[in-house]
Amino acid sequence: MSEKSIMIVNAVLNPNEKEAFTYYSEQSAPLFKEAGAMPIGKHKIAKTIIGSKKLQVVAIMEFPSSESITKVFESEVYKELLPYREKAFLELDVFIGK
């Protein structure tokens, strides 16, 4: 049995594409939930202390395994959301942690 994994999302939203962000969020959330995601936290970034990134949001979710995270991003349903994701974010980094 695989051990639980954490998905960490660092994002800078595109202020000119709020509709794309709303659509992407509404459509992707059920995919993550179906994969067993349990939200841990979502935080606005107030200040960068070390580094040069100007992130706006960090979201953290727990999944049953790293494979369950990867399956969402590799699914055909998720791939249909890519044009909206590209519009919605100026920067987006997604990491898997243990």
Overview of the molecule:
- With 98 residues, the chain is an alpha+beta fold.
- Helix content is 38%, strand content 33%.
- A four-stranded antiparallel beta sheet has the order 2-3-1-4.
- Helix 1 crosses helix 4 (82-88).
- The longest helix has 17 residues, at 18-34.
- The two termini are 14 Å apart.
- The mean pLDDT is 94.
Number of helices: 4
User: Widest sheet: strand order?
Assistant: 2-3-1-4
Q: Roughly how many Å apart are the termini?
A: 14 Å
Please identify the structural class as seen in this structure: alpha+beta
Q: How do the SSEs run, as a string of H and E?
A: EHEEHHHE
Oligomer: single chain
Shape designation:
globular
User: Runs with pLDDT <50, length 5+?
Assistant: none
Which sheet architecture does the biggest sheet show?
Answer: 4 strands, antiparallel
Quick one: how many beta strands?
4
Percent helix: 25-40%
- Radius of gyration from the alpha-carbon trace, in angstroms: 14 Å
Classify the beta-strand content into a percent band: 25-35%
Mean pLDDT across all amino acids: 94
